[in-house]
């Protein structure tokens, strides 16, 4: 990491999967996401899905936020595209603070697959993240 650069923490995990699956598979995936995150000491606040030409992007709002390396590792455990994980590792190591990018078409719709009750004083932000006011 470059000297003087400080990586922020990630409160939204971003997963790119290049596969189309049935709804029953999505229910299993949501359960797996919640279980893996719990195993790593992270609570899932919401999961949103955005369809892509090749599959889907998933935006997983988590609490507490994780350091970049830990977030990228958790994304890998949650079946993020391996090449993307590798690019993110290089971005993190070089100190690039905007390391966790996914691109959507303008006006793309998101489907909420999972949401827990959010404590007062929080609100939704774009791409499914949760951010304190």
> Could you tell me the strand content as a percent range?
25-35%
Mean pLDDT: 88
If classified by CATH, what would the architecture be? Answer: 2-Layer Sandwich
Give the beta-strand count: 6
CATH T-level fold name: Alpha-Beta Plaits
Helix-strand topology string: EHEEHHEEE
> In terms of per-residue confidence, which ranges show pLDDT below 50 for 5 or more consecutive residues?
125-133
Radius of gyration, CA atoms, in whole angstroms: 15 Å
Structure annotation, total helices: 3
Structural class: alpha+beta
End-to-end Cα distance: 30 Å
CATH uppermost class: Alpha Beta
Q: What's the helical proportion of residues?
A: 25-40%
Q: Largest sheet, if any?
A: 4 strands, antiparallel
What strand order characterises the main sheet?
Answer: 1-3-2-4
For the structure shown, list the relevant keywords.
single chain, about 130 residues, alpha+beta, Alpha-Beta Plaits, four-stranded antiparallel β-sheet, two-stranded antiparallel ribbon
Give structural notes:
- This protein has 133 residues and is an alpha+beta fold.
- It has a single domain, classed as Alpha-Beta Plaits, CATH 3.30.70.
- It is built from 3 helices and 6 strands.
- Residues 125-133 have low confidence and may be disordered.
- A hairpin with a 4-residue loop joins strand 2 and strand 3.
- Helix 2 (68-77) runs antiparallel to helix 3.
- It has a 4-stranded antiparallel beta sheet, covered by helices on one side. Strands 5-6 form a two-stranded antiparallel sheet.
- It has helices at residues 23-39, 68-77, 82-93; strands at residues 9-17, 43-51, 56-67, 111-115, 122-124, 130-132.
């Amino acid at each position: 990491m470059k000297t003087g650069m400080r990586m922020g923490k990630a409160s939204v995990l971003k997963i790119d999967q290049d596969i189309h699956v049935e709804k029953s598979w999505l229910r299993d995936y949501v359960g797996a996401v919640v279980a893996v995150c719990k195993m790593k000491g992270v609570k899932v606040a919401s999961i949103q899905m955005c369809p892509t030409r090749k599959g889907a992007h998933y935006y997983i709002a988590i609490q507490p936020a994780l350091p970049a390396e830990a977030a990228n590792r958790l994304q890998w455990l949650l079946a993020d595209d391996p090449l993307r994980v590798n690019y993110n590792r290089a971005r993190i190591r070089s100190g690039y603070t905007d390391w966790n990018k996914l691109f959507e078409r303008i006006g793309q719709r998101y489907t909420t697959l999972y949401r827990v009750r959010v404590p007062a004083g929080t609100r939704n932000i774009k791409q499914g993240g949760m951010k304190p006011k």
